[in-house]
Specification:
homodimer, about 230 residues, alpha+beta, DNA-binding
Chain lengths: ~230, ~230
DNA sequence: CGGGATGTTGATGGCAGTCAAGCTCGGTGG
DNA sequence: CCACCGAGCTTGACTGCCATCAACATCCCG
């Protein structure tokens, strides 16, 4: 237990992850059932429809959560970053597929044992509830986007979200975004096609809101306020 | 407390609502802080952006949860029925607007007191966590619809959901659906326009999947399997 | 019976999807 | 070092679906 909680106390996401809500004893319990695993880029953690055996905290990396149509069309219903929680405690089977977008480092827990740990740690369960509610809010915001906004609004809004993630403080100025996903993933996230995403990015460039480079994976935001205006036309 | 829990024990949604997870003592505590309120059709319970002061259980009726664009376009991000929970414990302000679609009967709790009650009743908090996760799953399924499906698939899928809600058992046969919402609300729910919804319903009629009546508010499903096929083209 | 709200149908246009070339960049091997 | 290759990205031409605008029908309620 000593070494176990030591490992956790050293963890890169000790404060930002769910574990941040755990005291030392609870942390030791978590540590006892958790094990680290590296996922290669493109590797699938859980498949939709499979038995729901895993929960995890993301130590490093980026994962996508996807739902798919019978005809194979894919929608990214969530993006997960370091510190985020993955999984569905108290559910028998998983309804979504979780895939690593880049090499990712996870702290895995067997689902049922994790559930027992939650029962013994009210603070943990409370933290998970708050996170789940936050995820629901995100999902609702995205429903608004997918149902009501046009292509340019979606792309501009996505870039703004990325900018906030990488540089939350910068207000009116310029930011460099390292887009962590391919055009295909951007399209699947936004409910558009690759071509439409590409065209809208080009349009943002000609409008002077951004500059592109390195195969489109680095985006320089020239005028954040302009981008905001395009993301939310009045 | 005797009369209080008596009121609750009589409640129409005693078993289906969140309270179903509460024992008698916890129920008494809830009862002590809850009060009933009738909302007229069209009346708003909470506005997006306002302070988040309320939680509630729905005793009877139907509510919509909406998010809006700066330009006034509205997306219904959730529909709530008898037994469902409304509100966002542990959040300072509400991000969505909740409106009654028909006259509705609610059991209201002041948010902060409800949070305290949750802290004293782990079973309640557990139940709320499960519901929130279920809501998140719903939201993700709807993201898939809004992002990837065509108009006919959306409308057919909506009808199937309604059919499942009113007659979960009927498998291959025919069901009569009493559509509980206007065309405008259907459109806002599905991310379409009123006209498109109407046209797709007419199309479903000519295709023999449904029959319409009473100003379109009653829909007779002729071939559930056909409807399912149209909702999920392979 | 009349009038307003709600729903349907029609004509048209625009935005995004589809199909199809090119282009860029990074990696590999000669 | 450079030519080549392939994956990912961009751009173009065209189509099709859904939104928009507008007229008409139907239902409901007094």
């Amino acid at each position: 237990m000593g070494t176990a909680s030591l490992r956790c106390l050293d963890c890169a996401v000790r404060d930002t992850a769910l574990c941040g809500a755990a005291d030392e004893e609870q942390l030791a319990a978590l540590s006892a059932i958790g094990r680290r695993r590296i996922l290669a880029a493109g590797q699938v953690l859980t498949w939709a429809g499979d038995a729901n055996l895993l929960c995890a905290n993301i130590v490093a990396g980026i994962l996508k959560v996807t739902a798919s149509t019978a005809s194979g069309r894919e929608q990214i219903v969530g993006l997960l970053f370091a510190g985020d929680f993955v999984g569905q405690p108290f559910s028998e089977d998983s309804t979504v597929t979780v895939t690593a977008l880049v090499e990712s480092d996870l702290c895995l827990y067997p689902r049922e044992r994790f559930e027992r740990a939650l029962g013994d740690a009210p603070a943990l369960e409370r933290a998970l509830l708050r996170r789940t509610m936050a995820a629901l809010n995100d999902a609702r915001e995205r429903m608004l986007t997918l149902g009501q906004r046009g292509a340019q609004e979606r792309v501009a809004g996505f870039l703004l979200d990325l900018a906030d993630r990488t540089a939350p403080c910068t207000r009116g100025g310029a930011v460099t975004i390292d887009v962590p996903v391919s055009r295909r993933d951007m399209a699947d996230f936004l409910g558009l096609t690759i071509e439409t995403v590409s065209r809208q990015l080009s349009r943002l460039k000609t409008q002077g809101a951004v500059a592109l480079s390195r195969g489109g994976r680095t985006i320089f935001v020239r005028e954040r306020s302009l981008l905001a205006a395009l993301a939310n036309p009045g």
